[in-house]
Amino acid sequence: MKKFILFCITILYLLGFVSCKNTPKEEIPAEENTPIENEQKPNQEAPISSNKKVLIAYFSLAENMVNEVDAEASASMSLPGDVTRLAYYIQKYTDGDIFSIHTIKKYPNDFQAVVDENHSESTNPKLEKKVENLDQYDTIFIGYPVWATNVPRAIRTFLEENNLSKKTVVPFCSHNGYGAGSSYSTIKSLSGANTLDGFAILGTQTASAQNSINEWLEKIGIKKATSIVPIELVIGDIILNANLNNTAVAKEFLKLLPQSMRLSRYGDREYYGSIQGSISVEGERKRNFTKGEISYCPANNTFAIWFDKEEQMLGMDIIKIGEITSDYNVLKTLESGIEVLVRKTN
Ligand SMILES: Cc1cc2nc3c(=O)[nH]c(=O)nc-3n(C[C@H](O)[C@H](O)[C@H](O)COP(=O)(O)O)c2cc1C
């Protein structure tokens, strides 16, 4: 009976999820509440001094199914998964590295079959790859969907394979209404680490969770990543101030400045245009954006400024390289085909 109720709630949730994600495929991208449910004591200090020291490891069913991109086959196959979204919100705040936990054996496309498999799993699943150079991180976020009021077994494997006992571990999860369950205690005891207060949210609310995530991170003492290089976007007599972040892609972009670009307007949400020169390094790819963000699209070698409609998901990957720090609402009023000079601030 309990199983049946959980199944019904999940199906209802999944239906809602599909409808809110039914945004049309994007042609050109230039690149994403509930109260926090705490199980642990508030807060120990989070020793984050550099952006390079944060790892966001997460497991999401949507990325671990037999056919993960066939949204027709199962609503729960739609990408991104609920936990994926949360992971990228944390990444946006911390500029940490993302690690998606993939099991070698994929889960079925049918929800009830996954529930059954989770119940019958007697060993922890093997994972596809390991975290490279774990030593470089001192804070590890661990994200997961709550399964049977606890962590999925893939998280147990991850905690077995990675010795986190000297790290600061921060759990975050999404669920269908039953909360974090025993998952925080499991992570604490399996990792043997200093753990900070976790974040738990309904799966249906993950699409608009950036603010809640930011508030939570601030509350538990995680420092916001600092942007390093101030730049200006000069559009006629308008000057927008912005910061480039300290990622490899942003640093490559910086080498190409100053440069003028002709930017087209698209979907009442972005200005984008080709970059003169190329960027050969990689960065954290994502399919969501926030207002004020500046990004690079590797597929099209384009630069973009995002000013509205941040609830939309993109059909192509973008990499965040910075954000506008002044009022960018003026962009809403401009035409397509603007000339923009991008240069370092003196
Ligand atoms: C096998 C399985 C077990 C689940 N068990 C629970 C549960 O105990 N409590 C709950 O609230 N939600 C439960 N859910 C729902 C998921 O936690 C929820 O849909 C989550 O947001 C999915 O995130 P994802 O899309 O990133 O995988 C379960 C889902 C599955 C597939």
Keywords:
7 helices, 346 residues, disordered N terminus, alpha/beta, six-stranded parallel β-sheet, binds flavin mononucleotide, Rossmann fold, eight-stranded antiparallel β-barrel, Cyclophilin
Structural commentary:
The protein has seven helices and 15 strands. The protein has 346 residues and is α/β, with parallel strands linked by helices. The chain has two domains: 32-219, Rossmann fold, CATH 3.40.50; 229-344, Beta Barrel (Cyclophilin), CATH 2.40.100.20. An eight-stranded antiparallel β-barrel has the order 7-8-14-12-13-10-9-15. Strands 1, 2, 3, 4, 5 and 6 form a six-stranded parallel β-sheet that branches. The chain is elongated. The structure holds flavin mononucleotide. Flavin mononucleotide is lined by residues 6, 10, 60-62, 81-84, 111, 114-115, 118, 145-149, 174-178, 203.
Write the layout of secondary structure elements.
Layout: H1 2-20, E1 54-58, H2 82-94, E2 97-100, H3 111-120, E3 139-145, H4 153-161, E4 168-175, H5 183-191, E5 194-195, E6 199-202, H6 210-219, E7 229-235, E8 238-244, H7 248-255, E9 259-266, E10 270-274, E11 285-286, E12 293-297, E13 302-306, E14 318-324, E15 338-344
Parallel strand pairs: 1-2, 1-3, 3-4, 4-5, 4-6
Antiparallel strand pairs: 7-8, 7-15, 8-14, 9-10, 9-15, 10-13, 11-14, 12-13, 12-14
Helix pairs in contact: 2-6
The site of flavin mononucleotide has 24 residues, from helix 1, helix 2, helix 3 and strand 4.
